[in-house]
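Exercise: predict the fold of this chain.
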Amino acid sequence: MKTGKRLGSSISQAAAVTGMLLIALLLVGVLAVNAISSAQYHRETAEGVLRDYAALAAEQYRQRLTNVLSYRAYNPLFAALARAGADNPSTPLITAADITAAASRDEIPGEAASLVAYTFRYDFRSREVEFSGQAPEARDFIESLSTHAESSYDSEWPFAVVYRTDSDGGNYFAYRVSSDGDGNPAIAFGVGGPSSALGPHFRMASAYGPLLPPSLTGGVERDSLLAVTVTGPSGQEMYRSGPGYVSSIEGSDQLSRNLGGLDITAALALDAADELIIGGLPESRVPMLAGLLILTVGLLVVALIILKREHELSRLRSDFVSGVSHELRTPLAQIRMFAETLLLQRVRNDAERDKSLQIINRETTRLTQLIDNLLQFSKSERGVGQVELKTMNLVPLLLETIEGFSPLAEIHQVKIVTDLRTDVIADVDPSAIQQMLLNLLDNAVKYGSDGQRVTVGITQSHGCALIWVADEGPGIPDQDRDRVWERFWRRNDKRVQAVAGTGIGLSVVRDLAELHGGRVWVTNLKKGARFVIALPVSQWGAPVRVKLDELDRYVPAPAIASEGGAIA
């Protein structure tokens, strides 16, 4: 009842601790969500302000570029064309050289003249075009001009600019339409050239001063905070100022349709927040909060593992106490019963008296083995286990141990055969060797079938004494070969669980072998399993470090063993 109460109390404590940890995890999660939401809101607000700044910069650049293209480029050019009678088919067409000469006389700006690679005049009625200079392909030009004039041109415009993409990267032409007396388009005249000629005008628009007022930039007298990009109608990049930041903080604008509708994008550098926003953009708290959340989850998992392990240990202790009680009760009951039989002189003859004494001796041996295991287990748990080494021949010691175990084997009709073909001299603790062998024999008898044959053998290889016990039981699954040596561990098998035991026999074997500097392992045979102990033959030798598969090759197969003693 006390054990059951302790288990119930342990389960209740585990449930309470688990509940509190889950509540703590929930609170951390709620706080993390609120903190992330708050930081995200502040960041979005700050980014919204920065996007407004970027839009302001894009608008400012659009206004400057409009002024540059209108008043420093196209308006002077069309004024010169009009003076030269470019809209009159009977007048010779002004040439690009004439425009350059006019620029040299300061009649038009030099930057305007640099735009002109050719001049043209187009008659809408005859659909004929006249060029002067580096003329483009006439058919494509006429198609582009007529299409744009019919679909997009506005008679209120002072001129219109059309950008085209070709194999050379791009070109433009600017034109004005004059009408006849009925108001119908008659003549289109203008200039054209490569789009790259507009580069100085784009740069001129950037050179007039900062695109953001000093009140926003803190007095920074340069546009190092942003980069401006101008793209054509087909998406081709025509101009880029600065390094061209890869940024999510952008503002955009567009030139008027008569100037070609070029797209303008102003992108702020990500570190611009330090100068444009007081305190900069809020730092993301996600990594810190994620770390705290992961730490909390980790602590919860560790706590659950510890609680589960504590619960498992409580169950194992309960099973251990129950197993030890059962193991003690059975031989004690036998000893008491046959001792009372002898005391009350209920034996009918000398044979029955001898049998009773044999049973008492056998059960006393079993009790001694069990108590030795418990004492060794206790020492191992406290870390005070030790061995007293003596140089001796192991074969007589094994035969003596087998002889003492024989009465216990006879109960299950188990035959113990030996493969002791050579003497092995080693530095060992004889009582420890006997205890290890008794535990392996007891394990083989308990978990094997009645009437089986158990083989005990010894050999020497690689500076090691190899002692093995082979049975004809069900064997050990591969995944359990290491776990069978653990304390309290028993296979989750109905046949195994039905056999009473303390769960410490094989762990004692492993602990005693390690105290000798040795190792233990188990391998499956065609029928049954073979448990092997490898011990260094000298106390001055190095611990066993040879690979197990190398040592296992030197363990003879049990089929060569003979019944009734060592092989000569």
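Check your answer against the key: Confidence is low (pLDDT under 50) at residues 1-7, 559-568.
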